[in-house]
Amino acid sequence: MSKIGTIMKREFLTRVRTKGFIIGTLAMPLVIVILTGAPALLMSLKSEKPKKISVVDETGRLFSSLRAALNDTAKGGIRIYRLAQVEVPPGELSQVRRELTKGVQKGRIDGYLIIPADVFEENQAQFYARNVSNFQVNEDLQGAVSKVVSHFRLSRSGLDPEKVKKLVKGVNLRTFKVTGKGREEEDVGGTFMITYILVFFLYISLMIYGVQVMRGVIEEKRSRVVEMIVSAAKPFHLMAGKVLGVGGVGLAQFLIWALLVGGLSFYGKNLISSLAGQLGPFPVPHIPVSLLLFFVLFFLLGYFLYATLYAGVGAMVNSDEDAQHLQMPLVGLLVIPFMLMFYIIGNPNSGIATLLSFFPFFTPIIMFMRIAVQTPPLWQVLVSIVLLGFSIAAMIWVVSRIYRVGILMYGKRPSLPELVKWFRYG
Questions:
Q1: What are phi and psi of 218, to 5 degrees?
Q2: d(CA 2, CA 8)
């Protein structure tokens, strides 16, 4: 055990003393926040560049109302949508459209909107532009046309549009999560956000630290350092020390991140409220301590499982290029449960979710996902942990036998029959 401890200490200290560890520890939370929040923020931003849009109103009744509906302004009070009505002589629509198309091509206008005479019956309008992938512009135009058409229909039927608007006004639905202790807590998406971020952390961490173990084995094997090490320690001690040492690095990072998350959870509301100013209250979800403990537990179990397999891959190859091919099945086993995230979050107790959470290679991610959203029965959690524990023990036994032979073998990548021989020799 002292040899394992010595190797583990070496693996731990050589990594935590590097600049990469410090930068990675500080940068990872920021990167994940950017990856999860930036797309939604960018989608919500509106371009303040004025858009010149020509409107062909074949009804002859909607242009003024449409112009009033599209009254969004940028800084300085400049209108974002500059609408210009185009008169169409009888029978000249095709010619007018050709001229408008030329205007779009040459950049004189950003697009043109055609409101046909039968829009009240057919509910169809057409917008032509060089870029029709700006969903915000499309949504604004569709909403404005729908509003003015509905308003005209109501007026024509003799109903007061404003009164009808009040009568059909929608109801805001507030959502409350009932906890296992019977408490009711308002949840406006906090559970989803917490689950997504923590699962993303878990997925990335299992892959990163597993690859670190594999590359460490490859580097020692390539530099022939491993030959000196195995003269003083058994191959199993070397594998165990490397896996435990790199796992300790992961736990150190998680401890730092947990302190940051805990501080944000307890003190973030006042901080963000003071920074938000006039933006109003910002919901900062509270992360239960039990959820963080389950996160650490499933990280450790998942790490021991995958790190052992990655160590075996490192022992079988001599270069990173060979390792890229052999590690693809392991990457697939991590990617599949991550890709199922949205289904699992929406249906945490479905038959598929329950069955997959018992599959040891999926358990660390899927079972944690289920616990984060809606804690399953205790027996399911315990069974999944027991199955995962047995799988780890089995993988350590199998991989250690291959590892004993593989770390001292050089040359081409072994075939399946050769791996069987390594296993027997080990």
A1: -65, -45
A2: 10
Give the C-alpha distances (Å, rounded to integers) separating 203 from 128, 331, 366: 43, 10, 10
What lies within 8 Å, CB to CB, of 304 at 6+ separation is: 243, 247, 392, 396
242 pLDDT exceeds 80?
no
Q: Which residue has the tokens 């408008």?
A: 100
* Token digits of residue 378: 């205790």
Q: What is the DSSP string of 327-366?
A: THHHHHHHHHHHHTHHHHHH-TTSHHHHHHHTSTTTHHHH
- Dig out the tokens for 17 from the structure: 């003393």
Q: What is the pLDDT of residues 74-102, one digit of tens each?
A: 777 788 889 999 988 888 889 999 999 99
Q: Domains of the chain by range and CATH?
A: 2-40+186-425 (no CATH), 50-167 (3.40.190.10)
Question: Distance (Å, rounded) from C-alpha 298 to C-alpha 349?
Answer: 19
* Burial readout 68-88 (b: 16 or more C-beta within 10 A, e: otherwise): ebbeeeeeeeeebbebeebeb
> Could you give the CA distance from residue 220 to residue 228 in angstroms, rounded to a whole number?
10
Write out pLDDT tens, residues 353-379.
Answer: 999 999 999 999 999 999 888 888 999
| Window from 75-79, 124-128, 206-210, 266-270 with minimum mean pLDDT | 266-270
Q: What is the reported pTM?
A: 0.67
What stretch of H or E contains 83?
Answer: strand 81-85
CA distance 204 to 32: 10
CB count within 10 Å of CB 96 equals 17
Dist CA 103 CA 97 (whole Å): 10
Length of the chain: 426
Mean pLDDT, all residues of the chain: 79
CB-CB contact of 319 with 218 (8 Å): yes
* Contact indicator for 115, 56 with CB cutoff of 8 Å: yes
Rounded to a whole number of angstroms, the distance between the first and last alpha carbons of the chain is: 20
Residues 6+ apart with CB under 8 A from 298: 202, 363, 364, 365, 367, 368
CA gyration radius, the chain:
31
- Token pair for residue 405? 């032979």
Which neighbouring-strand residues pair with 55?
85, 113
